């Protein structure tokens, strides 16, 4: 029903180190993941919107060592709503070119946020993003790639609506359950309705666990990982079953809607959770196949 289960390589975790990138590829391939999500911003292959060929070739040589399929995560800071900064668009173009070189099927893009300090109305910022995605969708189509627009600080249905307005077969949605869980708890929005309405637009799912604690309500707690973990604040990217996310209800919805895209496990802290990747993969496979899993009955 789905194309496979992948795992992300985190931008900050590898921080430009191709050696660490190779080590993680070896680790995730040995565990048995079908896909790996490559972070463009973590590899220093694109500089000032241009591919550095020497580093690109080193990266391709490493990728050729491993039989694992690929997706790419665009730099988190790209914001196509901000038309006043043309570099967002240029870096996205470079991301698509990079994704084509590494044979990626999907490029994930964080849906842009409205900046009310810009001398540009909200509706014009939204329109700018739609128009940019229309053009980028054509480029993606020519390269055989699908863009997945990811929900971040907004409801999933807002992103699904944006994708509908773009109206291009190569621009779809990446549905992030962790982001949505926090948003819905904070705003009182119906989590399950959001999932059901967004799933038909999705080409990729991001799965992890958290406690639905929005960081906005804990502004006195420093925004760094040791304190966030102690208090359970924000999108912690925990292994499946380690937080409060109700995967016992989420994954049946995924099966019900016959999702046929890629599922990506996003556990960002390998220092804390290296031993838990294999368990999360087994759990996801078991649950996606039969609906029977442990530690996700919530």
List the keywords.
TIM Barrel, two-stranded antiparallel sheet, eight-stranded parallel beta barrel, alpha/beta, disordered C terminus, 298 residues, 10 strands, 44% helix
Characterization of the model:
This protein has one domain: Divalent-metal-dependent TIM barrel enzymes (TIM Barrel). It is globular, with a radius of gyration of 18 Å. Helix 6 links the parallel strand 7 and strand 8. With 298 residues, the chain is an alpha/beta fold. The chain is 44% helix and 16% strand. The strands form 2 sheets. The protein has an 8-stranded parallel barrel with strand order 1-2-5-6-7-8-9-10, surrounded by 5 helices. Strands 3-4 form a two-stranded antiparallel ribbon. The C terminus is likely disordered. Helix 4 runs parallel beside helix 5. The chain is built from 12 helices and 10 strands.
The CATH homologous superfamily is termed Divalent-metal-dependent TIM barrel enzymes
Strand content: 15-25%
CATH class term: Alpha Beta
Mean pLDDT, rounded to whole units?
93
Cα-based radius of gyration, to the nearest Å: 18 Å
The second-level CATH architecture is: Alpha-Beta Barrel
Series of secondary-structure elements, N-terminal to C-terminal: EHHEEEHEHEHEHEHHEHHEHH
What gross morphology would you assign? globular
The residue ranges in which pLDDT falls below 50 over 5 or more consecutive positions are 291-298
Distance between the termini: 23 Å
Helix content bin: 40-55%
Outline the biggest β-sheet: 8 strands, parallel, barrel
The name CATH uses for the topology is TIM Barrel
How many beta-strand runs? 10
């Amino acid at each position: 029903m789905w194309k496979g289960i992948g795992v992300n390589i985190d931008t900050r975790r590898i921080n430009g180190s191709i050696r660490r990138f190779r080590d993680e590829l070896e680790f995730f391939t040995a565990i048995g993941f079908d896909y790996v999500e490559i972070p463009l911003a973590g590899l220093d292959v694109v500089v000032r919107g241009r591919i550095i060929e020497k580093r690109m070739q080193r990266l391709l040589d490493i990728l050729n060592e491993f039989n694992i399929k690929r997706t790419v995560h665009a730099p988190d800071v790209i914001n196509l709503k901000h038309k006043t900064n043309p570099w967002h668009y240029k870096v996205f173009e470079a991301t698509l070119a990079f994704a084509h070189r590494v044979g990626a099927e999907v490029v994930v893009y964080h849906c842009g946020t409205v900046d009310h300090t810009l001398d540009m109305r909200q509706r014009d910022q939204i329109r700018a993003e739609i128009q940019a995605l229309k053009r980028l969708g054509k480029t993606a189509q020519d390269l055989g790639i699908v863009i997945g627009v990811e929900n971040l600080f907004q409801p999933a249905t807002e992103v699904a609506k944006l994708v509908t307005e773009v109206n291009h077969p190569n621009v779809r949605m990446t549905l992030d359950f962790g982001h949505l869980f926090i948003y819905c708890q904070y705003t009182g929005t119906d989590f399950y309705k959001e999932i059901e309405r967004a799933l038909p637009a999705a080409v990729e799912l991001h799965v992890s666990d958290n406690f639905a604690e929005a960081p906005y309500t804990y502004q006195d707690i420093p925004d760094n990982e040791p304190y966030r973990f102690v208090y359970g604040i924000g999108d912690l990217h925990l292994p499946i079953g380690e937080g409060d996310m109700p995967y016992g209800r989420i994954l049946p919805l995924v099966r019900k809607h016959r999702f046929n895209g890629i599922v990506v496990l996003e556990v960002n802290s390998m220092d804390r959770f290296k031993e838990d990747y294999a368990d999360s993969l087994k759990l996801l496979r078991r649950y996606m196949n039969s609906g029977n899993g442990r530690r996700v009955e919530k």
